[in-house]
Amino acid sequence: MTTGTITEPADVLAKLLDVVGEHGLHTGSAGTEAYLTDWSGEFSGSAIAIVRPSTTEEVSRVVSICAASRIAITAQGGNTGLAGGSVPAGNRPHVLLSLNRMKTIRSIDTVARCATVDAGVVLQTLQERVAEDGLIFPLMFGARGSCTIGGNLATNAGGSNVLRYGNARAQCLGIEAVLADGSVVSDLSGVRKDNTGYDLRDLLIGSEGTLGIITGATVRLCPAPVATATAFLSLRDVEASFEVLNRLQDVSGGLVEAFEYMPGPLVDLVCEHIGCRQPLEVPAETGILLEIASSRPADAEVNDDGEACLDALLTEALADLMEDGAVQDAVIAGSGQHRAELWKMREAVAESLFSLDHCYIFDIALPLSEVSQFIRDSDTSVSDAGFQPLTVAHMGDGNLHYALVPARGADWSTLPLEDTKTAILENVSRRGGSFSAEHGIGASKLSFMRRYRSQERLDAMRKIKHALDPQDILNPGKTIPQRG
Ligand SMILES: Cc1cc2nc3c(=O)[nH]c(=O)nc-3n(C[C@H](O)[C@H](O)[C@H](O)COP(=O)(O)OP(=O)(O)OC[C@H]3O[C@@H](n4cnc5c(N)ncnc54)[C@H](O)[C@@H]3O)c2cc1C
Known about the structure:
Blueprint: E1 5-6, H1 12-20, E2 25-26, H2 33-36, E3 46-47, E4 49-51, H3 56-68, E5 72-76, E6 94-98, E7 105-109, E8 114-118, H4 123-131, E9 135-136, H5 149-155, H6 162-165, H7 168-171, E10 172-178, E11 184-186, H8 200-204, E12 213-220, E13 222-223, E14 227-235, H9 240-252, E15 256-261, H10 264-274, E16 287-294, H11 297-300, H12 309-324, E17 327-332, H13 336-347, H14 349-354, E18 360-361, E19 364-365, H15 371-384, E20 387-394, E21 399-406, H16 417-430, H17 446-452, H18 455-468
Parallel strand pairs: 1-3, 4-6, 5-6
Antiparallel strand pairs: 2-4, 7-8, 8-12, 9-13, 10-11, 10-12, 14-16, 14-17, 15-16, 15-20, 18-21, 19-21, 20-21
């Protein structure tokens, strides 16, 4: 790891100052660590300045100034990305362009059920605002108090309820962005269907700041659930997962919002890290955090047994699954506080894993039919190699955050990490999976791109990049590996 630094400013700084003012330009070295080092602490870079524009027009002028001097620009939202994409890479002079002054929720249309926001709006801020209108913006994950809508779109973020609502791409109706020459493209009308040629919105989503700077977005909103049933399950084995998920989808009419795999050792780690209690009296070897939610008022009504109808539906379904043997034990959250405790445990997984001295985490996706066997095979092979597998998974999407930590007593420095990583990735590839499910490529997975994506595909990406950013000033060194 290198330390984040501000290098000597060039004369562009005066022009940038003219655009964003003193409040929007930071050239000293104090306080830059938070911008120039990523969340994991693994990636850091240097910049001639931190520039914080407050409007789309200012972003456009900043990009034009940088383009004229061939200064590279790394866009940054909440700096919570997990692929090392949010900080400058390489030795070229960079500007770190933070969107953190662009925080306006421009409009909320409760009839069309959409919101138009600045890119720097924090995810949780939007969620809290639309909750006042009985609506939700459904992206859900542990960084929602810091990550931004622009960052969510730039990474095509996922999270725990993609299963029901889809990823960031599925929530986005339109984007406003500044391209590499400073021009602004904008499509924020909220129109639902628009087949007018190439879809710039979809091109920009997931492009990790390499094709344009997202400055605004129109996103779809959904009705807020009025009834929620949350449970922690102990399953017979990992093979039972999809039998249980499918049954719950069938009986609820597709209301499963989250189906998160949390095996025993992972729950132990989190409970120890945040000091929470085990969800079940007998710890589950194959644990699942499950949530079903409904916006139908009838599902919130209380039945003759004093139970909310949705809870009753879940209780009945789980009783059947226990009789069949797929579920061995379960606890249904009996209060809002109990539900919050279960979710706190899930949302503390990333920080618990990152608190360990040594840990390598994959963000992989597999076809659902391959997930159980993949976990079985991989757990056996990595254990044989001296690692302990610690997996958390958005199981309903086949998205595994498969983590390797040293087995008890093992010396990390002597373990065959590179060989084991290769074996896991080969296994993913053989089964038709992806080596990057939701975190993106950034700077951390360029070698995987080179190895597991065809030359034709990479060349097509390079052509698109060159067409939109011929000087390669937008987040160079990210997402697309260099030739060779
Ligand atoms: C505890 C924790 C849990 C997480 N859980 C999940 C999870 O479950 N699912 C998931 O998908 N991710 C998860 N993440 C990763 C991260 O939160 C997401 O990738 C998030 O979308 C990043 O948003 P950000 O605003 O922080 O972006 P940043 O980290 O600032 O940037 C990420 C990338 O997007 C680019 N970018 C940012 N803003 C813009 C913009 N306005 N225009 C163009 N490019 C831009 C950056 O250049 C960079 O390449 C988690 C992270 C943490 C720390």
